[in-house]
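The instructor's notes for this session suggest beginning with a concrete chain rather than abstract definitions. Hand out the sequence below and ask the class to guess, before any prediction is shown, which regions might be ordered.
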Amino acid sequence: MDESIKLETLEGIALLTLNRPSSFNAFGREMIHRLAELLSEASMDHDIKGVVITGQGKAFCAGGDLRWLAGSGKRYGEAFHLLAASYHKAIVEIRRMQKPVVAAVNGLAAGGGFSMALACDFRVMEASALFKQGYTSNGLSIDGGGTFTLPRLVGLARAMEIAVFDRPISPEQALSWGLVTEVAAEGKSVERARAMIQEILRGASSSFLASKALLTDSFHTSLETQLEKERHFLAWCADHRNGKEGIAAFLEKRSPRYL
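After discussion, reveal the predicted structure:
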């Protein structure tokens, strides 16, 4: 039985724990393929309302397992090409999931682990954790959507700084640069990530869905295309039972009761 990722569900929130602490939760092809499967299943499971991703032990995720790559029997380029296929599926599942996905960064997040955290909707980083872009220091280029998310989170100039110099990023820096939503005390990132999802779930799920979809696509569409998408989602939200409830609550001067 594959135990490289642990799945626990509590009160509608799925906790996915990367479970290879001896290798700082670095992933080979099988492990990242399993993560993509679990994310896909969570996306389609109506009983799951949100997802938290974290790591077992002292690290969140050290990225792709270079030992797996070296022992794969394939050329490095071929091995990375295969590994990235499953990894990218996991990233797309995170960005396209119509539910909140929060990274509880409990320790080192480097390389693919760094990009995976950035792909999540929100990041809670423990005070003892560390971000490290990692790729370029190993003679590689950034993967996992990192070149998509970084400039959108911190701007082009800061993204270039992170990409070129690859300096460690402390929780304080990450918070001030907009890379994380919150810094938590040691051992509290999962608790805070769950609380964040619970807060989101008290609002209108339809509004979250529309906001995530619109913002994800906003950087590579024209103004006219984005306006049309906004018009579509606005009308859809207004006709949704949550939209009707929100409007009624506003007119009746009461708190809304969203489903």
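Then share the key points. The radius of gyration is 19 Å. The longest strand covers residues 5-10.
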